[in-house]
Automatic annotation (TrEMBL):
GO terms for molecular function: kinase activity. It comes from Litorisediminicola beolgyonensis. Residues 215-242 form a coiled coil. The keyword Transmembrane helix applies. PANTHER family: SENSOR HISTIDINE KINASE TRCS, SENSOR HISTIDINE KINASE YKOH. It holds the Pfam family HATPase_c. The keyword Transcription regulation does not apply. It is found in: Membrane. This is histidine kinase. Residues 248-459 form the Histidine kinase domain. It catalyses: ATP + protein L-histidine = ADP + protein N-phospho-L-histidine. Keywords: Coiled coil, Kinase, Membrane, Phosphoprotein, Transferase, Transmembrane, Transmembrane helix.
Length: 461
């Protein structure tokens, strides 16, 4: 029970209530002591009235009056003279004097604590103001034994009452917390456990019903999360099925296109002018289709193979990428491709995977500029930074639309071209991550787009 929310709340409530009662206990006992002493002064003043009424009092009657008042002697100051009104033999010397006329709250609390901490009876003198202005002061001498016993008895009754109040309060709060908080929380936990068993089942999504505002907000947030997760799981399942189907189709289609490539090699040797003019376009189309099939199959694998890291002369690799893309520039398109890479710069990477990554970025840039209907430039640059190599692919194309930037590195969602698969940037991102690097969209607006690949130098930097 102590590990439950309601159990801990019960214990904390008892502790806090008892603490509050203890804070009240000390001033209460101090006030009780003051009232006790004032009562003794009042009894002593009443007893002294008998002597004021009759100067001659029988010694036995005087002793009885003092015994009823609980004091050993009574001194009154009327006008300027002190008068010993009643007296009896003193059992010892007076050890301390308390003047209630000048005592403040802190002094009374201090005196009460000292009284409780002193078990031995003492003889004390108490001074106060007489009732109804019957003199300047009244002074009595008394023993502290009865006072201390009365204070202890009063304190025990206060502590017992405090304990009862704290237990009753804690019990009421315990049941209130169980009803208002613990029960709704258990309901939410039950819904979460049920949902975790079958997250694809929309019937298990929570329906907010709490009347407490904070709990209702938590339920609404949970419903939103469950709804998004259910939709994501359904989409993931559909994409997995689609991916499997696409992979199978791409595999067979690649084989068919590979065969078609062999036939186009012979078509290129034809002397027919029409065939000679159309053959390169046919070859380019089939090559792009084969590349798309291979990209789809590569992404359809569980993961890219681990990169085989070696030293790569970056300038030569990028020039090979640009040469391949220059051949793909269609007739009439004003697209220039250039590299700005130090000839001595080498990076640590898998040459095949780095080629694919840069080629995808350059191809996307070329297709973006070509689709805009105007000319442009693509420039690949590289430099050594602090612990990283930075490879930049920049173009002067139209920039990426907002939707493409939102789903930039998600497969089948980040495509920009009409008919595009949206796999290119997803593949590049995966290849770069395999090298321990990052792919970042540094700029994309009407003046162009800039992608930055950062590869860690590691121990070979």
């Amino acid at each position: 029970m102590i590990n439950s929310l309601s159990g801990r709340f019960l214990v904390l409530t008892v502790i806090f209530v008892m603490f509050a009662e203890v804070m009240i206990f000390v001033p209460s006992v101090a006030r009780f002591r003051e009232d006790y002493l004032l009562a003794r002064l009042e009894r002593a003043q009443i007893a002294s009235l008998a002597l004021l009424a009759d100067d001659m009092i029988d010694p036995d009657l005087e002793e009885e009056l003092l015994l009823n008042a609980g004091v050993f002697n009574v001194v009154l100051r009327r006008d300027a003279a002190r008068q010993l009104v009643l007296s009896s033999p003193m059992p010892g010397a007076v050890t301390q004097t308390f003047d209630l006329r000048e005592a403040g709250p802190l002094m009374l609390i201090r005196d009460a604590v000292v009284e409780l901490a002193t078990p031995e009876p003492r003889l004390i003198r108490v001074i106060g103001n007489p009732l109804r202005d019957a003199g300047l002061l009244i002074e009595v001498t008394m023993e502290t034994g009865a006072l201390r016993h009365a204070m202890i008895d009063y304190g025990l009754r206060i502590l017992l009452l405090s304990a009862v109040i704290s237990v009753v309060t804690a019990a009421l709060l315990f049941f209130a917390v169980r009803r208002l908080l613990v029960k709704p929380i258990r309901g939410v936990v039950g819904v979460m456990q049920s949902y975790s068993e079958a997250p694809e089942d929309a019937r298990r999504i929570i329906e907010p019903s709490a009347t407490v505002r904070e709990l209702r907000e938590a339920e609404e947030a949970l419903r939103s999360l469950q709804t998004q997760l259910t939709q994501a799981l359904r989409q993931k399942e559909r994409l997995a099925q689609l991916g499997g189907a696409v992979a199978r189709v791409s595999h067979d289609l690649r084989n068919i296109l590979t065969s078609a490539q062999l036939f186009t090699d012979r078509i290129e040797t034809s002397e027919d002018p029409i065939v000679t003019r159309m053959a390169p376009k046919l070859v380019g189309s089939i090559t792009r289709a084969v590349s798309l099939c291979e990209s789809t199959l590569a992404f359809g694998r569980a993961e890219e193979p681990a990169p085989m890291l070696t030293r790569v002369q970056l300038a030569a690799l990028v020039e090979e990428v640009l040469d391949a893309e220059r051949l793909a520039v269609e007739e009439g398109q004003d697209i220039s491709l250039a590299a700005d890479i130090p000839s001595a710069l080498s990076v640590r990477a898998d040459p095949e995977q780095l080629f694919r990554a840069i080629a995808n970025l350059v191809r996307n840039a070329r297709q973006a500029i070509g689709g805009s209907g105007r000319g442009g430039e693509i420039r690949v640059g590289a430099e050594s930074g602090e612990g990283v190599w930075e490879i930049t692919v920049a173009d002067t194309g139209p920039g990426l639309p907002p939707k493409a930037r939102e789903y930039l590195f998600r497969p089948f969602q980040g495509g920009v071209r009409k008919g595009g698969s949206g796999l290119g940037l997803a593949i590049v991102s995966e290849l770069v991550r395999g090298h321990g690097g990052t792919l970042e969209l540094a700029q994309s607006d009407t003046t162009g787009t800039v992608f930055v690949i950062r590869l860690p130098m590691g121990d070979l930097g």
